[in-house]
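Question: I have long wanted to understand how a fold can be written as tokens. Here is the record:
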Amino acid sequence: MNKKIVIAGSRSGVGKTTLALGLMAALKKQGLKVQPFKVGPDYIDPGFHTLICGRNSYNLDSYFLGAAGVRRTFLQNSQQADISLVEGVMGLFDGKGKDSVSSTAEIAKTIKAPVILVIDARKVAQSAAAVVYGYKNYDPDLNLKGVIINNVSSPHHFKLLKEAVEAKMSDLKILGYLPKNQDLELPERHLGLVPVTESRELEIYIQKLTELMEEYIDLEGIIEISESDDLIEIDSAADFSSGFKDKIKKAKIKIAVALDQAFNFYYQANLELLKAAGAEIIEISPLNDSQLPEVDAAYFGGGFPESFLEELALNKEFKNDLKEKISEGLPIYAECGGLMYLSSQVKDFEGNIYQMLDLIPAEIEMTSKLQEMGYREIEASADNLLLNKGEKARGHVFHYSKISKIEANVKRKYSYRKIREGYSTLENILASYVHLHFASNPEMVNNFLLKALAYQKSGV
């Protein structure tokens, strides 16, 4: 029996993430191997999933992967688990464009998984039944099987809600509720502290959340709903690693990946595609290391460098070693937080200025306003570290910082929506605000590793 469940929200902010994390923790406590997934392009929630479940969380995103790629990603990573738990994104039917691409509903249907809807009961009683009725009947092909109610005022309030929903939809199972005023603020910025993430604050949060699940949520009912005979098949055309070059696989290429408190936003699929192509991932810390190990390329993802600007600036030994190796031809690819680190300087929220690597002559300024968010398809306007001219790839942007000043001689290697991106000064450097998903164009892996192989052969 294939156990799988999707936790969806009627909208953003109803407690979907809280419930998903709590269920992961409670089911794991019962001794189950829980495989987590996240609908959409988010790279923050999967960090919490991984910490709680002890298993890497994967993005199920049809904009990046296509439907066949979503099915392959799900099947490949769920087979050794007792239950797969998928956290949705935004509202149940919210996705990209008029067709709601990569919505929670679309992904649930793609992997043939039953859905549990989370609703918010603040300031409503019987009217909640109308909300659930609308979601249940909006798409008859969606297998909506249960409801969890958040922010319930009292047991009497829950009784009103439960009876109202069940009176209209007897085939829906009410799986419990969470009382309001539980003070369940998710500890901020713990997600990438890789094994350091086992902070006491986060431990207390997870313990409290687990206890609430055990007290108020019908865990056995959820397991029962998750049992599905609906099988999905892998499409061989969705094997993103099938085109990797043999000479790369045989070269034993080593890729340094920045992974510490400051840098930790990566699509797990990106790292695994690099490994599938034969590369060895070497974890490094720009915060704590004094020098770069012997590697053939470097990859700096996003994260929270703005919270560690002083430490990054003061680690001059690592910065100087990295700059020297890059000047000798070491390929380096950087995204968002990585772009900030490669810049000349970063101004924090209080106006303090910190010197970074100065590999991209640009000044970065932190702002209190979200500068950009959403899916992006980029097209290479010139050959670069990842793409050849005219090639396309897809990614996502989410950042509060902005480039306040950039020198005119900085080359820009790709664009989207008439915005030039892909900043470069040397052919072995590429930095951008876009978090690219390598599965959207696996040739990026080939191209990156070919540059790494050329550096390796140069014997520098």
